[in-house]
Amino acid sequence: MVASVLKMNGKTSFKAKELPARWNRLSVAAHWIRLSVAALLNQLSVPALAIFLSVLIAISPMLQGLPLGAPMRENLIVGHAALPQWNFIAEAKSPSDVTVLKVANWEEYIDEGGWDDEEAIELDSGTITSKDGLVADFEAWYYETYGKQVKVEYSTYGTNEDLYSQLTLGDTFDLVCPSEYMMMKLMKEDLLQPLSARFFDPSVEYNYYTRGVSPYIEDIFSGNEINGKPWGAYMAGYMWGVIGIVYNPEEVSDEEASTWSILTNPAFRKQVTIKDSAREAYFPVLAIMNQERLLSDEFKNSPDYHEKLAELMNDTSPGTMAKAEPILREIRQNVYSFETESGKADMVTGKVVANLQWSGDGAYTLDQAEADDYYLKFAVPEECTNLWFDGWVMLKSGIKGDTEKQQAAEAFINFLSRPDNVVRNMYYVGYTSVISGGEDSQIFDYVDYCYGAEEGDTIRYPLGYFFSGDDTDEDYVITAPADQAQRQLFAQYPPLEVFDRSAVMLYFPDDVNAELNQMWINVRCFNFDQVSGQTWLKVILVLGLIGLVIAALRFRHSIFKRPVKRGFYRSD
């Protein structure tokens, strides 16, 4: 009974059953009085409710003649959704029994359900599909698992900066999903609630995150710190990937796409795009500045290569930023546009031939192009790449030491980390989860389902580094079509050698961010100093011509009037 009541509470329309014809006018009036009373009860405090019930008991003999039987109860159960949650039904939960979990995530970054039959994923372990979406399914699962009701208030944001602005302006969330650098900023400002010790206990059956997170990702999260505390103590990973170049192989060679210098290559003037983000643009600029060093054997073979790479790709010293700005201006002059979302469509339609893209959107772009019989590739430049993460963190301002709310927040992370739900998310969103599944093979089976092949020109594609921590593990090798070494499989699960030359962009202090943003404004906005003398001459000539035309029109009567013959005079 409780489950059916709670399920109906999620609906928004009210439609009571038709009242029996035998009810007289008094019955109908009593019916609507009851509904009004039920609505009133939802607004009463506990003391007020106690007083109301005492009065109701006192006058109950007077109400015996009214039809208070099953028909009324039936209509409350069927139609109570138009009323607030606290209906006068013994089995229903009161607001104090419901944990409200406020979650904020990126737009279109979670499975929302509504799959049709053709979208069902048939794996050896069973069929995976989605009807109601992960948020609604979590609410039902939480009640079944913990015997407590949770209501998720789910909202979205467009950028990390949008999220931070909302927090600064006073919006309160319990659980949010920022990128790695914003997570570091929130850690630095002591705004995050650490994950509980119980969350990391692998013996707990429902701790799907700890039991299933990729060993490769776990090493990264435990090996990096802010204020002496590891990332993993505060952040549970969600999606991850690298940045690279989506390109049209008919217009761009593999060699040309394998370097960040494609952004300044005059051969592709106004045919490439880059992200409209200071951070995303600054990384390839640093790679172009340091290209020779990054590609040298001496640098790549140094024993502290990864430390040096991270330092180099996070260099925001005044001298480096001064050298970066001219290169960023050169990129601005060469690219077709700075974009946030249009790059995918521009590649699919052929408007541009190359686009800097996050790996998940890269795979999506290749899928969309392939649906139109248009063949694209994905490359990760040889100099290096940016390793990025999005992950879940709890906010102190929302949790406020509430153990019930923290349990719900951590349960939400765990529910999304359950292997079948990971598959649902990866299919719906298109990005790669940080979850490998542990002893559950569903996620690897899904990757094989998407990219495996038994015939034709094939390659062995090892994924052991991600699924077991051992890249030589034969249990995690996919036999895939040979072209997948440069296509969707490569974008979603780059080989280990790509990650060996990757670096995470760290959190920049506020003063550095201000300088970076000012540089971005200088480059993005029109700058008269950058206009050449030849261009100025053309502008002056055009303005002069326009001035002559205006003057001619203004004084046309004086300039073009006919001379007056002798003996006549002009009447005007």
Estimate the strand proportion: 5-15%
Number of strands: 18
- Gyration radius, rounded: 32 Å
Percent of residues in helices comes to 40-55%
Model regions low in confidence, pLDDT < 50 over at least 5 residues: 1-53, 55-93
Summed up, the helix count is 27
Average predicted local confidence, pLDDT: 84
Q: Based on helices, strands and strand pairing, what is the structural class?
A: alpha/beta
**What sort of overall outline do the alpha carbons produce when their principal axes are compared?**
globular
End-to-end distance, in Å?
A: 97 Å
- What summary fits the major beta sheet? 12 strands, mixed
Write a concise synopsis of the structure shown.
The protein has 572 residues and is of the alpha/beta class. It is 46% helix and 15% strand. The protein is globular, with a radius of gyration of 32 Å.
Detailed description of the structure:
By secondary structure, the chain is α/β, with parallel strands linked by helices. Helices cover 46% and strands 15% of the residues. The longest helix has 22 residues, at 533-554. It is globular, with a radius of gyration of 32 Å. Mean pLDDT is 84; it is low at 1-53 and 55-93.
Keywords:
two-stranded antiparallel ribbon, alpha/beta, 15% strand, disordered N terminus
Topology:
Layout: H1 2-9, H2 25-43, H3 46-59, H4 70-79, E1 98-106, E2 121-123, E3 126-128, H5 134-146, E4 149-157, H6 160-168, E5 175-176, H7 180-188, E6 192-193, H8 208-212, H9 215-223, E7 225-226, E8 229-230, E9 236-247, H10 254-257, E10 272-275, H11 278-289, H12 291-295, H13 297-300, H14 305-312, H15 318-334, E11 337-339, H16 342-349, E12 354-358, H17 359-371, E13 377-379, E14 385-395, H18 396-399, H19 403-416, H20 419-429, E15 432-433, H21 442-451, E16 458-462, H22 464-467, E17 477-481, H23 488-492, H24 496-500, E18 502-503, H25 510-524, H26 533-554, H27 556-560
Parallel strand pairs: 1-4, 1-5, 10-11, 10-12, 14-18
Antiparallel strand pairs: 2-3, 5-14, 6-14, 7-8, 9-12, 9-13, 9-14, 9-15, 16-17
Helix pairs in contact: 5-19, 11-15, 15-25, 16-17
